[in-house]
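Exercise 7. Predict the structure of Cation transporter from Rubrivivax rivuli.
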Amino acid sequence: MSDSCGSHGCATPAASQSPRYRRVLWAALIINLAMFGVELAGGLSSGSVSLLADAVDFFGDAANYGISLLVLGMALTWRARAALFKGLSMGAFGIFVLGRAAWSAASGTVPEPMTMGAIGALALLANVSVAAMLYAWREGDANMRSVWLCSRNDAIGNVAVMAAALGVFGTGSGWPDLAVASVMGVLALTAARSVIQQARAELRPLPAHA
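Solution. The predicted structure, encoded as tokens:
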């Protein structure tokens, strides 16, 4: 078997042209746009940084799914370029969340935990559904991998938001919310690094003998 097959180069084109994969991306796009609106409203009404962070993440993911649909039938180079852009976007999201958490810590805001918990549970259901639909394509090229990582990280983040809501309820402090928001920011930076590394590798020219 050739090196390109060993690195999923042979399986990716068929998967990327799959009508089922395209339908999954459309479903993910719609779900993420809907949850962006729900979490934005909930984060503003409850004063929760972790909900606002998750809302921004939902919006970024919706944009990522749209980009993935745009480049789905294109050559690997274009899919890798799209993945590189998405990796940079994920990194920017991580930096934004960490900055917002620092600002909220300085202002001493305490969020409303019941709203946090209820919306966190709804978001978890949405993201688990998307992650389950995308599971079969988690080992594709950098573009497909970035889509899977976004959904996986979101599901983890939703569990953390629910835990933060419980912590805020039990302590009467905003620190559990800020701690979760910070972890979400770091998780986004870690995923961004993984996607950027794979995208850069796919953008390197093949050796002359390959």
